[in-house]
Write the structure tokens for this entry.
Amino acid sequence: MPELDMTQTARLPNPDALSREAAPAAAFFVPLAVLGLLLPSYSLLAVNQHLLLAVNVLALNFCLGLGGQASLAQGAFCGMGAYLSALTVSAWPEGAAILLPIIVAVVFVTGALISYPMEALGEGFLAMATLGISLIFTNVVHSLPELTGGGEGMVLHEPIALPIIGALQGDRLHYFLLLALLAVGVYLYVCMRGSRLGRALMACREDSLAAAACGVSRPRVRAMAFGLGAALSAVAGALYAHYAGFISPNQFDLHLSLKALLFLVIGGPGRLYPPLLAVLLLETALSEAQILGEARTLAHGLLLAAALLFDPERRLPGLESLVPRTLRRRIS
């Protein structure tokens, strides 16, 4: 049977499908926009970190929510965007408008090329392979101190400067930039979910054999979703790197990937706004609970373990194989 035409799968949904999403989008983004205008500038530093995490959660939703492709490499892709932008824009500050799209394209292709051969692995092994990518990224950064600053990190002196707009500086401006990036990601997600590509991804997630019988190339469609998620994380990493003025491998290690997975699990893969609300509400609450100290990491782990144990098949279609079947049967 001939494979599904990839040029046809990329068609956008009809205007009615997009109009149905207008009300939920307004209910989500308008209060955040008002909040960005009302909050004092010093309070936006922590909020911007939560928005960075929210973008990575949305990026992971492209892979896991649509295609059922579990990934523990989201932090690595975010770090790729941050380090590539730091190295190239610092060397050519006037060329940021040219360099940033190139960086995004490079990370997109990298993610797609990583995903394609991994389809030969089982679902549980696929998650372990992306875990390896995350560890490799941090090790490469540590092993190149002359270029990346190693474990001590690197300081960025040059902000992103765009033609006409000028230098991108300030907490409030970056709040709205990250919020705009999140809105663009939501729009792309809605368009993909309602397109033939999105339906092909969901078919691969539900029953790969039936999807293949219908002519869907599972490695191809999943590689596109994986690449889009990687590119979205890279844009967020590039923006945040120049905003913070300092980056280190600890900011983009496995911890970031696990937090993205945690909040996607809580909100539900494939659902659009609940995971984002989980980030903004729960992460804000945990960050304010200073009394917990390092126990906040333990709280993250316990929440993820509970989601895996009590509802692995509905919430994590790519990771349920990591939970022993006998244990799942006892819990259910």
Observations:
- Residues 218-244 form the longest helix (27 residues).
- Confidence is low (pLDDT under 50) at residues 4-10, 321-332.
- Residues 139 and 249 are 9 Å apart (CA to CA).
- The two ends are 40 Å apart (CA to CA).
